[in-house]
Specification:
The protein has helices spanning about 5-20, 25-60, 80-90, 115-125, 130-135, 150-160, 165-170, 205-210, 215-225, and strands at about 140-145, 175-180, 185-190, 230-235, 240-245. It is of the alpha+beta class. It has a domain at about 115-245. Strands 1-5-4-3-2 form a five-stranded mixed beta sheet. Helix 4 packs antiparallel against helix 5. The longest helix has about 35 residues, at about 25-60.
Length: about 250
């Protein structure tokens, strides 16, 4: 037998002897270890479930429970004033007739009957923003603009937010005067329109004009030398002649 064969034979003998000395693991021990592994896994899984399941419950600890039988709804959340302002601003409807709450001018004594009737009709139509009636009351020679505009401008101005009916009511509540017209006198409001110079306007009339004109406009009238603001006129036979401003 060669030395190589002897070495292989010796290695084989030693391997068999080592296998004979190794004691096999009892079957019960293997089962016990298997059960312990599953128990460890089950315990870990239960801890995970409890941890995630208890988080929402733990988060609610400290919140007062509603009293038994109390059905009062919780208070509405407080909204900041800026949001309220913006909402109000974005959603509130604009008034289609700004003169609805305007006080009616008082009756004027000493007017010709035809003038008084036309004035009262203009007041009633202006208070309700009845522009169709206002156009009907306007005469054929009625003027609202030096460029040739007629009574149709009143509704156009109202759509633009200029509130012509409010101005009309304020004018007809001021003192009046007369100026010469093509077919007799024209009764005009305010009286300042009848003056040749701005200096003739009284302090009381200034206070009345302040309802529809600013201090800056007063300065422009002074620079021009006469009143160039809003005015309206009715002829002595009851024809509504103009509602106009400017020179």
């Amino acid at each position: 037998m060669s030395k190589v064969d002897q070495a292989l034979h010796r290695a084989a003998v030693e391997t068999r002897q080592a296998a004979m000395r190794r004691r096999p693991v009892p079957l019960e021990t293997q089962r016990r270890a298997h059960r312990q592994g599953w128990l460890t896994f089950a315990a870990a899984f239960a801890l995970v479930v409890l941890a995630f399941g208890l988080v929402p419950w733990l988060a609610g600890i400290g919140e007062p429970a509603p009293p038994v039988g109390d059905t009062t709804p919780p208070p509405e959340p407080v909204v900041t004033s800026s949001i309220i302002t913006e909402t109000t601003i974005a959603t509130a409807p604009a008034s289609s007739c700004p003169s609805l709450d305007q006080a009616a001018p008082q009756p004027v004594e000493g007017l010709p009957e035809a003038v008084a009737e036309t004035r009262d009709a203009i007041v009633a139509a202006a208070r309700s923003c009845d522009f169709e009636l206002l156009e009907t009351l306007a005469g054929e020679r009625f003027s609202s603009s030096f460029g040739g505009g007629g009574s149709e401008n009143l509704s156009i101005w109202n759509d633009k937010g200029l509130e012509p009916t409010v101005t009309l009511l304020n004018l007809l509540d001021m003192g009046h005067a007369t100026i010469p017209g093509p077919a007799g006198d024209i009764y005009v409001w305010p009286a300042a329109h009848s003056y040749e110079t701005w200096e003739e306007v009284t302090e009381e009339e200034m206070n009345e004009l302040a309802r529809i004109h600013s201090e800056g406009e007063f300065d422009s009238f002074g620079a021009a030398g006469s009143y160039l603001g809003w005015r309206t006129g009715i002829s002595e036979n009851g024809e509504w002649m103009f509602f106009i401003a400017g020179d």
